[in-house]
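Feature request, filed as a ticket because there's no other form

It would be nice if the structure record came with a short human-readable summary line next to the tokens. Right now we just get the raw output. Example of a typical job, pasted below so the devs can see what we mean:
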Amino acid sequence: MLKYAFAIAAAPLAMTASLPVAAQQSPSDNLDKISAHLRAMTTMTANFTQTDRSGQSLSGKLTLKQPGRIRFQYGKEANLLIVGNGKSLTMIDYDVNQVQRWPIRNSPLGALLNPERDLSKYGKMISTRNPDVLSVEVRDPKRPEYGIITMVFVKSPGSPGGLRLDGWVSLDSKNNRTSIRLSDQKFGVPVANSTFRWTDPRKNRGRRR
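Raw output as currently delivered:
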């Protein structure tokens, strides 16, 4: 389970393959729009469905608070948690009492969790057939081991910066592909910093998150 979940953060879009090709605006304009959305998105909650390359799916609730805080709370089918505290991502598998941690900057999720990141240096727009859908692929060419993330946004006048994040696909250096689809997104909701705390199973064996 831990290996499977690792691809969610340390691992572009199966989603984009199904998306319709022809950008209405210049790539730089769209990158600016996405950057503005990420800066304006102070908090977000959403339901997520995570699917790996074999088609296995897990679901749960996503909570995000900028800068750098994120929580993937899995449902009953996975005794698993992923938390970002602004500096690092921690993955906790309560079934085997295992914890792994790595810097956010080493993960494709850094593109989502660092709203000040200059997408013009790392991002490339992916054409879609739908003018209301924007897709951007983010990778660091100097750090291919950090992987790739392809994020998909839908134009939404009521959302921060006029866009709504609908999901992403991450691809790690070993070609492990994981797609995340979001639903019921809510922006600007109160999120306490305590949301991003977690119980270390190595100290509290048998206690669920």
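Something like this underneath would help us a lot:
The domain at 2-185 is CATH 2.50.20.10 (outer membrane lipoprotein receptor (LolB), chain A).
The longest strand covers residues 177-187.
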